[in-house]
């Protein structure tokens, strides 16, 4: 197999990976708090000892879009949306996780939790407790939670120390490899939810482009395979 074939094969593998990423984006176009992903390609060039160089592409690093999603009003007391940069912090069995999905509800103990039962953390990394006998819960733009005429806590907003090290877990949750830190400048909206930031039309267009590029690469490989077969047949004769 020639250097050109190896280059095309590596490109085909990268295109397949990007197809999976885009398909996942499209399937989550209506998922609350979902962040669109893209694939970052890198190039590896190697000297082939007298025959020039071999260039191979690799597409494995995923880049998460931080673009703001559309905000929809729900009027739910514990439906929260972030306007600006930042994430809610959740306590999970695997450690702290970040999310933009703001659907919460008090559990049996009174702690605010997401649909998976993971507790929402405050500005100091502690759970947000809402007494069951308090009505009229309000959440301020700065995350302060009040009810019954008294302050109950303040929801924390965080950001990853290393954005590149943000690893997706569970669809709308992320693990920050480099840790998290408080963020400033963002506000919390009570009674709203942030939708997915997936641009479905753009993703469908990119999917078509990938399919065409993959078909072109496949055609080249088939032509190259036939050329080699013909050359071998000629030598055997």
From TrEMBL:
Q: Where is the Flagellar basal-body/hook protein C-terminal domain?
A: 190-231
Give the chief site where it resides: other
Q: Which GO terms describe its biological process?
A: bacterial-type flagellum-dependent swarming motility
NCBIfam families xrefs: FlgEFG_subfam, flgF, PRK12690.1
Q: Which domain of life is it from?
A: Bacteria
Q: Which family does it belong to?
A: Belongs to the flagella basal body rod proteins family.
Q: How does it assemble?
A: The basal body constitutes a major portion of the flagellar organelle and consists of five rings (E,L,P,S, and M) mounted on a central rod. The rod consists of about 26 subunits of FlgG in the distal portion, and FlgB, FlgC and FlgF are thought to build up the proximal portion of the rod with about 6 subunits each.
Instruction: Print the keywords alphabetically.
Output: Bacterial flagellum, Cell projection, Cilium, Flagellum
Q: Where in the cell is it found?
A: Bacterial flagellum basal body
Record-level GO cellular component terms: bacterial-type flagellum basal body, rod
Q: Where is the Flagellar hook protein FlgE/F/G-like D1 domain?
A: 81-146
- Which species does this protein come from? Ruegeria sp. PrR005
Q: What is this protein called?
A: Flagellar basal-body rod protein FlgF
């Amino acid at each position: 197999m020639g250097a050109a074939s190896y280059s095309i094969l590596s490109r085909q593998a990268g295109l397949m990976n990007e197809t999976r990423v885009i398909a996942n984006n499209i399937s989550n176009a209506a998922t609350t708090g979902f962040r669109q992903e893209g694939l970052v390609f890198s190039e590896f060039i190697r000297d082939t000892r007298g025959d020039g160089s071999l260039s191979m592409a690799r597409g494995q690093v995923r880049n998460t879009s931080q673009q703001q999603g559309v905000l929809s009003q729900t009027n739910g007391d514990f439906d929260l949306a972030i306007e600006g940069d930042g994430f809610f912090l959740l306590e999970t069995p695997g450690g702290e996780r970040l999310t933009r999905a703001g659907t919460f509800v008090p559990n049996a103990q009174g702690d605010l939790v997401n649909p998976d039962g993971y507790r929402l953390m405050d500005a100091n990394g502690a759970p947000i407790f809402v007494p069951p006998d308090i009505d009229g819960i309000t959440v301020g733009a700065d995350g302060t939670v009040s009810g019954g005429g008294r302050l109950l806590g303040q929801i924390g907003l965080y950001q990853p120390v290393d954005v590149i090290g943000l690893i997706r877990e569970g669809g709308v949750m992320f693990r920050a490899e480099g840790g998290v830190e408080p963020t400033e400048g963002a506000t919390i909206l009570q009674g709203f939810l942030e939708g997915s930031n997936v641009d479905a039309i753009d993703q469908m267009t990119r999917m078509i482009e990938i399919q065409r590029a993959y078909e072109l690469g496949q055609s080249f490989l088939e032509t190259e395979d036939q050329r080699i077969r013909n050359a071998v047949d000629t030598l055997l004769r």
